Amino acid sequence: MSRYDLAIFDCDGVLFDSSMANRAYYNKILEKFNLGPMSDEEFSFVHMHTAQDSLSFLFQNRPELLDQALNYASQLGYEPFIPLMEMEPYVIETLEKIRPFLKTAISTNRSTTMPRLIEVFSLDKWFDSIVCALDVKKAKPDPEGVFKILKELNVPKDKAIYIGDSKVDEQVAKNSGIPLIAYKNPALEAEYHANDFRQIATILLE
What we know:
- It is built from nine helices and eight strands.
- By secondary structure, the protein is of the alpha/beta class.
- It has two domains: 6-17 and 85-205, CATH 3.40.50.1000; 19-83.
- It has a six-stranded parallel sheet, sandwiched between helices. Strands 2-3 form a two-stranded antiparallel ribbon.
- The radius of gyration is 17 Å and the shape is elongated.
- The chain starts with 5 loop residues before the first strand and ends with a helix.
- The mean pLDDT is 95.
């Protein structure tokens, strides 16, 4: 049994360690325009935001190149970088354990890269709803994506919990009024903290 009816997961940094893939992806775009590689500060930003916001940030000092960068990114695609993504340990075991008792969903700021990710990792097998930046007018930390999931799955927000790893996730949980499990980030203000998915399962099923 669980006190919750729904667990909403962030994607990057929670379900997947995608740091190598995202770094390689954006550095490839910067390299095309003789810029980069990203600084750690720049990477921290792009790892939490939509592709368009990330490129706007990376090209803020060269705004005349932004449209070209967006066009190149759309042609580049994310396929070559998917092999660099690693699913976090115990994800599947945890999902198998909790899904008899509660629904699961993903709310992510990924956009055009998400459909291929769903296909490669068969995410639609494990999640009842997947909402990315393409599905909403306002990306996280706006709560639109979370509310879309709640409505789609017919779950009241007091029966939902959010699992995230960043300040954006902390803010979206606050904005939506649902509790947060902070994953591998003790600096976040959250109702719970977890360092691996086995701890997440314990929290959800206690």
